[in-house]
Amino acid sequence: MLNISLRVTPTFKKCGLVLILIISGLWWFSLLRRRSSEARGIFLIRPNITGTVNRKSNVTSCDYSDISTGALFDVSKRFPKDFILRHRPRDVLPGGMYAPSDCDPGERIAIIIPYRDRELHLKVILNYLHMFLQIQKRNYRIFVSEMVPGTKFNKALLMNVGFLTAEAAGNYDCYIFHDVDLLPVDVRNIYTCGDHPRHLISFSTKYVEEGHPTGWPYAWLIGGALAFRAEHFRSVNGYSNGIFGWGGEDDDMYYRLTSRGMLIERVHPTIGQYYVFVHKHDRGNPKNKFKKRILATSAERSKVDGLSSIADKYSIVAIETLTLYTRILVNCSEERILEQMRPYLYG
Ligand code: UDP
Ligand code: BGC
Ligand code: MN
């Protein structure tokens, strides 16, 4: 009888152990990497509007096939900063409105920019976005929701006020909340709403340089440029009104959406590329020290903190129809708002 006996030498044992450790290490590493590029409720899409949209009887619907196959439209290469600064947008109606004259895009969109004291960024984004949205044959109006000087910045409340003002002004189909310091670089990233709230930004070389290989700081971050249909936005009660200072309003929105089981679509990173301005921290916008408490109460608080409770917490100081945008100047009572937030902040 053939007797095969395998003698396991100590060296062989050691090698086996090392091999097992390496394999399991690699398995954990791949799992963690997968985890960090995924977030609950977010899925990637490739926006691709082809053919026709909502044909009306007398005007031809816009044809988007040339845009959806278009080449990369990279601002940093094609349009240096002084070109954008000198460029004068054309065909814009007072208040920052535009619609193509030769076709009907179907959807009407409101761009809402929360703002204070970033004059250069505002100048650049207005010049740039008008150009970008006109290439995309969009029907749009740009609203800048500006906080009065000398108070603490409240980005989320500005976005709520921007939404209510835009809705009252034009009952738009789609509302896009947009930071003043982000420029989309690819025309194929069509500014439109989807069946779910749509996160338009998914990649910036700035984040790669800062050590995030995916080009995006963390998977569930939905800040910067987010598109909602009115019913999406209303169904989560809009943004919180109670987030003063920097950070957390976008994470709070993520929990508002996911706690209701809503999905979020994100533009694929090949198309969702943005140029991100590097800037210093603003005065009047200190880091929000309540972020942890705020994010621990997002789901519950969203029922009472938002569009439903905003009416007595702000005032519109002025609305101006300017050449390139509609300016909404907003004041709000931090005291009154924090009064309502107290149980959630200290609770
Ligand atoms: N913002 C502003 N003025 C301020 C603070 C913020 O206009 O004093 C607006 C602006 O639209 C900006 C956005 O709020 O892009 C987000 O703030 P910030 O740029 O500081 O946040 P980041 O995304 O760079 O961390
Ligand atoms: C903040 C977010 C911010 C993100 C990226 C997070 O820590 O909570 O509000 O958008 O960092 O800067
Ligand atoms: Mn910024």
From TrEMBL:
What main location does UniProt list?
A: membrane
Give yes or no: UniProt keyword Cell cycle: no
Which residues are listed as membrane-spanning? 12-30
Question: Mind listing the UniProt keywords for this protein, alphabetically?
Answer: Glycoprotein, Glycosyltransferase, Membrane, Signal-anchor, Transferase, Transmembrane, Transmembrane helix
Entry-linked Gene3D superfamilies: Spore Coat Polysaccharide Biosynthesis Protein SpsA, Chain A (3.90.550.10)
Which residues does the UniProt record annotate as the domain Galactosyltransferase N-terminal?
89-193
- Top enzyme category: transferase
Q: Which GO terms describe its cellular component?
A: Golgi apparatus; membrane
EC number(s) on file? 2.4.1.-
One MF term in the entry's GO annotations: galactosyltransferase activity
Family annotation (Pfam families): Glyco_transf_7C, Glyco_transf_7N
What highest taxon heads this organism's lineage? Eukaryota
Protein's UniProt keywords contain Membrane? yes
Give the location in the cell: Membrane
Membrane topology listed for this record: Single-pass type II membrane protein
Where do the Galactosyltransferase C-terminal domain residues begin and end?
217-280
The GO annotation for biological process reads: carbohydrate metabolic process
Copy the pathway line from the protein's UniProt record. Protein modification; protein glycosylation
Write the signal peptide boundaries: none
InterPro entries of this UniProt entry?
Galactosyl_T, Galactosyl_T_C, Galactosyl_T_N, Nucleotide-diphossugar_trans
| UniProt similarity note | Belongs to the glycosyltransferase 7 family.
Cross-referenced PANTHER family: BETA-1,4-GALACTOSYLTRANSFERASE (PTHR19300), BETA-1,4-N-ACETYLGALACTOSAMINYLTRANSFERASE (PTHR19300:SF57)
What this chain does, per the entry, is described as:
Catalyses the transfer of galactose onto proteins or lipids.
Name this polypeptide is given: Beta-1,4-galactosyltransferase
Organism, by scientific name, is: Dreissena polymorpha
